[in-house]
């Protein structure tokens, strides 16, 4: 399997990816905002809007890191609940292979309000520590690219989803306009590793980030992978000209 542009064994990839996120955990949120000029927040907002969370639902946010999507899911379900005067509370599990990321999430000041509604669980997307058909929605944002065996992870998402559950995969993707790809290449190959060096003192992890994005399959190819895992009515939404894409599917 590939780690950036290098070929490594699947176990080696798991170990190296762990190293990358252990080293970036403490500066993770600030780097996300810097690199995307805050735009990742809009992509995440649109992802949650598409999921349309409802009161009482349970989300599993895989590779959930510091918990952005879990928090947004609960907030939106609460707003839907107020409109409908129902009182069942939505909840979320943030599952990540790296406890340094989970610790950074738990320590966020804005997470105090979600005590008891968000659980933080250390686990691997390729072998999820959850029961069959136990959640209403699965999300994975900027995580599937790091998983060595994508089809194993997608099967796991299908396994833990209830019938009628939905899957949202948000990931960096490929530009839909070739001229933009050239500008984006210049930005990502030059600016991102430099930012990583300056802000997080870690050029290599951000170099990996750029290379792993380039290696990830294009929108239509990944859509077929999602369908092959048993998801129905899979749709693709490209954001910001294809810098990121949302793949959305149903477990029926
Ligand atoms: N979802 C969060 C967000 O959007 O801000 C975090 C994304 S971060 C770029 C990628 C996360 O994937 C890291 O927290 C990393 O530890 C996690 N990760 C990598 N490989 C994983 C795996 N096999 N299973 C679960 N999590 C994994």
UniProtKB/TrEMBL annotation:
<dbReference type="InterPro" id="IPR004033">
    <property type="entry name" value="UbiE/COQ5_MeTrFase"/>
</dbReference>
<keyword id="KW-0949">S-adenosyl-L-methionine</keyword>
<comment type="pathway">
    <text>Cofactor biosynthesis; ubiquinone biosynthesis.</text>
</comment>
<keyword id="KW-0808">Transferase</keyword>
<comment type="function">
    <text>Methyltransferase required for the conversion of demethylmenaquinol (DMKH2) to menaquinol (MKH2) and the conversion of 2-polyprenyl-6-methoxy-1,4-benzoquinol (DDMQH2) to 2-polyprenyl-3-methyl-6-methoxy-1,4-benzoquinol (DMQH2).</text>
</comment>
<protein>
    <recommendedName>
        <fullName>Ubiquinone/menaquinone biosynthesis C-methyltransferase UbiE</fullName>
        <ecNumber>2.1.1.163</ecNumber>
        <ecNumber>2.1.1.201</ecNumber>
    </recommendedName>
</protein>
<dbReference type="InterPro" id="IPR029063">
    <property type="entry name" value="SAM-dependent_MTases_sf"/>
</dbReference>
<keyword id="KW-0474">Menaquinone biosynthesis</keyword>
<dbReference type="InterPro" id="IPR023576">
    <property type="entry name" value="UbiE/COQ5_MeTrFase_CS"/>
</dbReference>
<keyword id="KW-0831">Ubiquinone biosynthesis</keyword>
<keyword id="KW-0830">Ubiquinone</keyword>
<feature type="binding site">
    <location>
        <position position="66"/>
    </location>
    <ligand>
        <name>S-adenosyl-L-methionine</name>
    </ligand>
</feature>
<comment type="pathway">
    <text>Quinol/quinone metabolism; menaquinone biosynthesis; menaquinol from 1,4-dihydroxy-2-naphthoate: step 2/2.</text>
</comment>
<comment type="similarity">
    <text>Belongs to the class I-like SAM-binding methyltransferase superfamily. MenG/UbiE family.</text>
</comment>
<keyword id="KW-0489">Methyltransferase</keyword>
<feature type="binding site">
    <location>
        <position position="96"/>
    </location>
    <ligand>
        <name>S-adenosyl-L-methionine</name>
    </ligand>
</feature>
<feature type="binding site">
    <location>
        <begin position="124"/>
        <end position="125"/>
    </location>
    <ligand>
        <name>S-adenosyl-L-methionine</name>
    </ligand>
</feature>
<dbReference type="Pfam" id="PF01209">
    <property type="entry name" value="Ubie_methyltran"/>
</dbReference>
């Amino acid at each position: 399997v590939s780690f950036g542009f290098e070929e490594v064994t699947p176990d080696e990839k798991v170990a190296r990816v762990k190293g990358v996120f252990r080293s970036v955990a403490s500066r993770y949120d600030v780097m996300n905002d810097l690199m995307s000029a805050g735009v990742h927040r809009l992509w995440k907002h649109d992802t949650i809007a598409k999921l349309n969370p409802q009161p009482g639902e349970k989300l599993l946010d895989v590779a959930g890191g510091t918990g952005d999507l879990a928090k947004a899911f609960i907030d939106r379900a609460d707003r839907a609940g107020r409109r409908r005067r129902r009182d069942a509370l939505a909840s979320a599990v943030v599952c990540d292979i790296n406890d340094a990321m989970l610790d950074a999430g738990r320590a966020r000041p804005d997470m105090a309000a979600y005590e008891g509604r968000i659980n933080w669980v250390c686990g691997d997307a390729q072998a999820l520590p959850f029961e069959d058909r136990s959640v209403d929605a699965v999300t994975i944002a900027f995580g599937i690219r790091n998983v060595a065996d994508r089809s194993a992870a997608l099967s796991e998402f299908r396994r833990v989803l209830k019938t009628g559950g939905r899957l949202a995969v948000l990931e960096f993707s490929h530009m839909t306009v070739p001229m933009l790809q050239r500008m984006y290449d210049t930005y990502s190959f030059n600016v991102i590793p430099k930012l990583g060096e300056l802000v997080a003192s870690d050029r290599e992890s951000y170099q990996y980030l750029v290379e792993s994005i380039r290696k990830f399959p294009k929108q239509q190819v990944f859509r077929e992978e999602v369908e092959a895992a048993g998801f129905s009515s899979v749709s693709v939404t490209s954001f910001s000209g294809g810098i990121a894409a949302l793949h959305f599917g149903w477990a029926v």
